[in-house]
Specification:
alpha+beta, 5 helices, Dna Ligase, domain 1, eight-stranded antiparallel beta sheet, 207 residues
Length: 207
């Protein structure tokens, strides 16, 4: 996706949050609804600037809704309903950056369990681990930021689901991978760049 289009989407999410501070709903122009009508999985991540500490991260992993709606929904949820954090406050609005992850549909990995690490590429893949009613998801940028290998990535996705770290080896556990493009603001309201996920950076708390 073009950077100017992602900028448009991030602005859409930002202003939905701004309107929410005022108790108002965002009125979305019809041309934007038409332009971003294709269903797509999307996550919004909000981080403090310039520290880069996680402030909220929620999304829709499956392509269930038009992209414009998914961006607004995930932005509002990340800002106000991430249970790990207090709701974003108006005075923080110009001190945080938006990060948008656009996702492909998840595919189940059905290879023998011992082969799963070989099928996961760090910097490309995100993971979902599912067992019964428990499900954990980690985005492609998370193992890069923590410097994890594929086995560690699988283990921490299990932990995210509230399961033992080796549950990915169990026959009854389902493991899915997906890929995504990650875009972020360089500074609040600023230029949007595509995140390259090849080199580890400072750790962030995604748990």
């Amino acid at each position: 996706m073009k950077l100017e289009d992602v900028k448009e989407l991030i602005d859409l999410g930002r202003w939905a949050v701004y309107r929410a501070f005022k108790g108002e709903e965002l009125s979305v122009p019809e041309y934007l609804k038409e332009k971003y009508s294709k269903p797509m999985g999307v996550f919004t991540t909000i981080k403090s600037y310039p520290e880069g500490k996680l402030r909220g991260c929620i999304g829709i992993p499956l392509p269930l809704y038009p992209l414009w709606y998914g961006v607004i929904y995930s932005s509002l949820q990340a800002a106000f309903n991430d249970p790990r954090f207090t709701p974003l406050q108006p005075e923080e609005f110009d001190k945080v950056i938006w990060e948008l992850s656009l996702l492909t549909p998840p595919e189940e990995l059905k290879a023998p369990k011992e082969k799963l690490p070989e099928l996961i590429e760090i910097g490309r893949d995100g993971l979902i681990v599912e067992l019964g009613q428990r499900k954990g998801l980690l985005l492609p940028q998370v193992p890069v930021e923590h410097g994890w290998n594929a086995e560690e990535f699988l283990s921490y996705t299990c932990i995210k689901a509230g399961l033992p770290p080796d549950c990915w080896k169990w026959n009854e556990t389902k493991v899915y991978r997906f890929s995504g493009e990650v875009f972020k603001e360089k500074e609040p309201f600023g230029e949007v760049i595509k995140e390259e996920l090849k080199k580890p950076s400072a750790s962030s708390n995604y748990f």
